[in-house]
Amino acid sequence: MLAEDRLSALLDAAVDAMILADERGRITRFNRAAEALFGYAPAEVLGENLSMLMPAPYRQEHDGYIQRYQKTSQPRIIGIGRQVLAQRKDGSTVPIELSVGEFVQGAEHGYVGILRDISERLRQQAQLKNQADELRVIFENAPTPILITDLAGQIIKANRACCALLGRSEEDLLGRSQLDLLHPDDRAGAQQLHQLSVEQPASRYEWRYLRGDGTVVHTTNYAALSVETDEQPPLIISEIVDRSALLSAEHEAEELRARLTHAGRIGTLGEMVSGIAHEVNQPLTAIANYANACRRLLQSGNAEPAELIGTLEKISAQADRAGQVIRGLRSLTRKRDAVRERLDCNQLISEVAKLLEFELRNSGWRLLLRLTPRLPTVTGDGVQLQQVVLNLVRNGIEAMSERASGDFIQVETYRSGAGFIEIAVSDCGPGISEAVEAHLFEPFYTTKHQGMGLGLSICQSIIAAHGGEMSYRGNAMGGATFVVRLPTAE
Fold first, then answer.
1. How confident is the model at residue 325 (pLDDT cuts 50, 70, 90)?
2. Which superfamily is assigned to 338-490 in CATH?
3. Which terminus in the chain has less CB density within 10 A, N or C?
4. Could you read off the pLDDT of 135-149 as tens digits, one per residue?
């Protein structure tokens, strides 16, 4: 009796449901875990056939399983674990993991079944499968190209959008090195950047890929490193953004900006044409006068070589003066592609000042240049930067024609912190009201009767294209000061 109590205690302490049956399949023991699983009390099942705990078709086939095993000793369920359905008292079914063993103790012969409820595990597995299916559908049909590689850069997976972008089938991509798909000029640098992707959580690169037909596609790659798990090694997941259309649009915008900038220069110089003509006419008139003087000396027969040389040197100086004006004019009016070179801002401003001499004298104003010597160079298009200075000085001249508190316009250059220089153009005009200041750099906004409202907008666009910024402030004379801030070439 003690052994019987001990067996009952052991069965009831088991976490899994345990059922003992005799050789005919009638239930002899039913532990507490089995009560909780099936909803039966022991008195309701003891002596009953095990088939009562099974739904169709297992219920009808159960006795045949036992008889077949007893005749052939070939197990179908007995001695082999498997997943089956069990039926509770309320008629509901529950998936279980069933292990059946046979025991013989003296004259007693029977079977022991260990049952484990796996409904929660199956639910989690189904949930994981659904999530995996959803992720697969999302990955395959994502509009953004996605490429997955291992840490060595070998391609493991590519979605449809990626295959379409690269003009290659998934079979052609799988197993290849991502670096082999890049433009030859990008591969060396990309190999170093790939190593960075392995070492840091997220990275961003500008790469060119070679499509299947040999054409080049410009892309931005956003790469991230996946989290390593026991089942999955870390992977590099790359989102590839096609920049070809953006680059084309940027190129068109640059061409439009260049045409607009050129038109702005032509318009400004057209307004200055009388002054420029005067600047050219003065040295030409002087050349004609000196040439006539030389002719008269030669005709008189009293010409001394030293006297002729002095006159000819004056002719040469005046010709050089006229040439400087023409060269500056041609430089500003010529239509050409934007160039990037190291520039001395002080020299650019001095050249612009020569074009403005007549207009300033005719208006009665002075141009004061306060240029800090040995400024660091900037990188950019010299003609476009001269256009900005020219427009700002002429705006000052026009403002002072309305009302002036002084007789000068000042252009300053100076360092502005580390890595920047500033060009400040100040006038003695009436300044700018707060209402106008709010719209100062907007295209087509103007307070002039015949203005287009594009001058300051073009200037700001030019400076932004040079990596700088343009701002306005009032000054101590009551006028306006426009400040151009440019990064140095260093």
1. low
2. Histidine kinase-like ATPase, C-terminal domain (3.30.565.10)
3. N
4. 888 888 888 898 888
